[in-house]
Amino acid sequence: MLRMHFSAILMLASKNGAMHWLISLGGLGLVLVGLADNSLIPLPGSNDVATVVLAAHHRQPWFYYSAMATVGAVIGGYLTYRMARKGGKEAVNKKFSQKKAKRFYAIFERWGFASVAIPAILPPPFPIVPILIVAGAMQYPTKKFIGALTLGRGIRYAILGYLGAHYGSSILKFFGKYYWPVLITLVALSVITGLYGVFEYKRRQKAEGSTAPEPGPVRRQPA
Question: Is the separation of the CB atoms in 24 and 62 below 8 Å?
Fold first, then answer.
């Protein structure tokens, strides 16, 4: 899966245009980005960058942006959870290799609530989408799932909103000063990650093909 810090690249690539567009949307923009960031096509780090940028401009209190980012993340995570809940364990088996699926199952069976809440706090590149899918596939209670996801994302975006409000200007100045080096680094990391994802996908297909049972001899039916 191609995993990119999409919003960071977008903001740097267009520098002023994307930031002004995001600022004009305000809290609604965070909800929309949060929906994408916690979907089956995640954009790791996108909502983090957006929260810091908006909190740095002080149009609203920083905790407003933290709350809106949390709302978007929880809605997006819930939609992924619901899709996996309907699909059952087949949804996990289709998306991940057998080895990874077993590992995710083991983590969830052992930690339950914490296996959702803790990844929701951790920053990229720690993946949360696999846990959302596993929670749905294993029919984890909806109220507990929403509670765990809200707790984790709430803590994460509260920290980011606070940092954005108090240190956001320094962060934005840094990105402005080192515009091209940061942009080139992000694009390079995105390309490397994408190539690695393609390599892993082909390697998995090859492994599954080599373990497939060979067809037996065809028996002729008696006349």
Answer: no
Cα–Cα distance for residue pair 128/123, rounded to 1 Å: 10
Q: Amino acid letter at 220?
A: R
Distances (CA, A) of 33 to 5, 96, 125, 126, 163: 12, 25, 17, 18, 19
Q: Which of the pair, 3 or 80, is modelled with greater confidence?
A: 80
Q: Six-digit token pair at 123?
A: 């920053």
Within a domain: residue 61? yes
Name the domain count of the chain: 1
Cβ neighbourhood burial of 112 (10 Å; 0-12, 13-18, 19+): middle
Range of the domain at 97: 6-189
Stated pTM of the model: 0.68
Q: Is residue 217 part of a domain?
A: no
Residue 108 lies inside a defined structural domain of this protein: yes
| pLDDT tens digits, one per residue of 39-82 | 666 666 778 888 888 888 777 788 999 999 999 999 999 998 99
Residue 162 lies in a domain: yes
Q: What is the percent of the chain with per-residue pLDDT over 90, rounded to a whole number?
A: 20
